[in-house]
């Protein structure tokens, strides 16, 4: 995990392996800030969709039970939203390095779209 101190608040950048381990152990809430279209085409099963244009960091729940980890397609939007959350007073926030593209490249499971039927399907490697 990489960390950056932003005026006394720590921005955490988690690796795919760290996110996958915490996700499997039900220790985090994963927030996807991609577009609804991106999410519908493929997403991490159980991740919550909160598209970047509608992201209101002051409305995020506290993190007393589970850490919030934000992700997007490549890590750019999620870092931007994590920084917005810190600016809004969120004391602990993390984002996933490399985003959903890195998640898929690492062979982690996700929900994709069956191109023959258009139906969602589990993708595992």
TrEMBL record:
Q: Which UniProt keywords apply?
A: Nucleotidyltransferase, Transferase
Among InterPro entries, the record links this protein to: Rhodanese-like_dom (IPR001763), Rhodanese-like_dom_sf (IPR036873)
Gene Ontology MF annotations: nucleotidyltransferase activity; thiosulfate-cyanide sulfurtransferase activity
Pfam families xrefs: Rhodanese
Q: Rhodanese domain spans which residues?
A: 24-112
Recorded hits in CDD domains, A to Z, give: RHOD (cd00158)
Q: By what name is this protein known? A: Putative adenylyltransferase/sulfurtransferase MoeZ
Upper lineage ranks? Bacteria, Pseudomonadati, Pseudomonadota, Alphaproteobacteria, Rhodobacterales
* This protein's encoding gene: moeZ_1
């Amino acid at each position: 995990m990489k960390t950056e101190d932003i005026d006394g608040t720590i921005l955490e950048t988690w690796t795919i392996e760290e996110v996958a381990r915490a996700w499997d152990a039900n220790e985090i809430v994963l927030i996807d800030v991609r577009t609804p279209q991106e999410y519908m085409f493929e997403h991490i099963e159980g991740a919550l969709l909160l598209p970047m244009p509608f992201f209101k960091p002051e409305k995020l729940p506290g993190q007393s039970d589970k850490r919030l980890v934000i992700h997007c397609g490549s890590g750019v939007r999620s870092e931007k939203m994590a920084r917005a959350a810190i600016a809004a007073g969120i004391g602990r926030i993390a984002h996933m390095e490399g985003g959903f593209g890195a998640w898929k490249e690492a062979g982690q499971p996700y929900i994709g779209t069956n191109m023959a039927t258009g139906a969602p399907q589990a993708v595992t490697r």
